[in-house]
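Sorry to interrupt, but I need a hand with the structure work. I would like you to pick a protein and set down its sequence and fold. Please put the record directly below this note.
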Amino acid sequence: MSVTIKDVARQANVSVATVSRALNGHENVADAVRTRVLAVAKELRYSPHHAARSLSSRRTNTIGVVLPDLYGEFFSELMRGIDQVARDHRQHLLVSSYHGNPQEQAEALRTMRGRVDGLLVLSPYASDASHLAENLSPSQPAVLINSQTLGTGVPSLSIDNYRAAGEMVRHLVAGGRRRIAFIAGPSDNFDARDRLRGYCDALAESVPGAEPWVVQGDFSEATGHSAARQLLIGSPRPDAVFAANDMMALGFLFACQQAGMDVPGEIAVAGFDDIPLARYTHPSLTTMRVDIAGIGAQAMRMLLQHLGDAPDQPGTSETLQANLIVRQSTTAVPARAVSQSG
């Protein structure tokens, strides 16, 4: 037979209400009483009935996380940051992936209503921003990560992709590169669009008369590898390739190694995100560092604050900066042109 809160109260010689306050961390319990209640609960192996607690408190202690995918180091790092803060605050996670399908995203958001206290949503698709707004319940606290908000009033956290892409182009130009090609991300992706725009504007400013040299990709290693067939065959070849994320950069770097090309001697290669693998390739990858786990952790803290301290406050947006990390895959540049190395 399972142990109940009444059993704990009886053995600790206190009321059921006192046990509840002690277990839930309320301050109006004497330290000695709290210590006794916790000791008895541990001795009896008492486990709170979360369903009953949810009914009484209207809290599930569960956070919903809705992502476009779960594959790859970016999402793994993001979830690591979210999970660390969730565990620190004794929150459970309910995770759903919608694989870039707006209908599946809407279904995931609807399914989580009533099951979670709040939502973390990453919806980078530029074409479904209004669709997202339609499926977020006004009564469901949420924080958007790297998503278009379109004035939804929902708190959001994003990266200044435009500025960061421009900084990478200027780094490559400072290293003597002039024929700089770009492997773009998905055309309907919010982050990818800003990175492409940053590349084009910085190229026009830094290399007057240069035409953008863009190959379409989809953020996967495979498209980075296949981009080499377009960029390495023919003359002249680019003297630098900047990929819109590290996975495509690593795919392109592998193709260079297969072709026997000297990186960075013949061609410089750069990425974006600074996934953990980027520093362990040969040569190690120059990239724009995004604190991916930090974004997940910060988004989780924003949501918990929204749930607890000021649930009715208007949504705020925060924009984070990416840092240039210069490694072996690009030509060394003057110290003043390097934001950070590692």
Summary: The longest strand covers residues 62-67. Residues 62 and 196 are 37 Å apart (CA to CA). Confidence is low (pLDDT under 50) at residues 53-57, 333-341.
